[in-house]
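U., I forgot to send this yesterday:
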Amino acid sequence: MIDETLLEILRCPETMQPLRMADSALIEKVNTKVKTGTLKNIGGEVIEEPLTSGLVREDEKILYPIRDDIPVMLIDEGISLT
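Result:
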């Protein structure tokens, strides 16, 4: 879980939009695609490990994964939700 103070200052590295924690329904939806081997990040790499949490951009178009309680805020690591 991300500290609320940190969450308030984190921004999308591409658009500078605020981020929020992804809800469990979204994580489940993303993990369904991970299991099929069809989900790729923006950099084009297939995502092989299921997510436990993530941060969603304000416009709900990009999800940034959280791995080992660390948000991965690299544009290429983002996951398109559109």
